[in-house]
Prior knowledge:
This protein is an all-alpha fold. The chain has seven helices and no strands.
Amino acid sequence: MSKNYFKAWREHRGLTQVQAAELAGMSQPVLTRIESGARKFDASHLTKLAIAYRCSEWELIGRHPGEDRSNVLDTWARIPDKNRELARRALEAFTENKS
């Protein structure tokens, strides 16, 4: 089975397996088996865990959370909820066509 970073991302977000499983809508034993490689994961598992861990699906299978933190999704995840609207507007300012 290919390498994944499910456990690393869960720990990076400070979640127990029970908390992560609840956020992802799966049982803790299923998450344990997915993290250990004893159970194959599918696209549904990948999407649910990415949402729970506030990262992208590709990061779960392709990037350890301790690697380069220049990823915009990591930056977004560190923005407090009270500042998200301001941050969203700031990012959108860079996408507008000012012609």
